[in-house]
Task: structure prediction
Amino acid sequence: MTRSTKLTFIVLTVFLLSIMVAGCKHCCKEKEKPSVNLSEELSVTATVEAIDYDTRHVTLKGPQGNTMTFYVDEEAYNFKEVEVGDLVDIAYKASMAINLEKGSGQDPSFIVNGASARAPEGQKPEGVAYNVIDVRAVVENIDYENRTVDLRGPRGNVITVEVDDRVQNIKNIKKGDEVSAKYTEAVALSVRPAEKK
Result:
């Protein structure tokens, strides 16, 4: 596991447990297993304001009139097809499902999957990319008085996270329980000519 993967695991685990536990009062009865599902969707259309093909920079103007300049990686082989005035449609979706599982016997794990697709060379840029991160950690210890939970990750590392004071059913979390989270993120981008007036 690389350093960035470890960091991602730690951050995601802390995040997932704090959300899971904070969300328990909204989604769980006293005896139910805590779980929560979150999602977010955003979409925007920007206009290409300027392009420097040599340095591979493009300036986009957003719907509110704000502009930002971006470097376009060499892998974007259709960059030369972009022109000033083109419209860039960007859609983003992220979701996370977090569950407390009792007695499944599965070991801690960290799995990353993803894929991408793009338009053939010579067309306006278009593409889709997604990533899925599956994290499973085991509850090693619970301090009900101080409201902390120790989680063991796939490499045996243990981190301690605080349980939010708003959580009413912390006693439902027991040693040996598994915390699982699936984080999915997808981005779609397409460039099209400006509509003629």
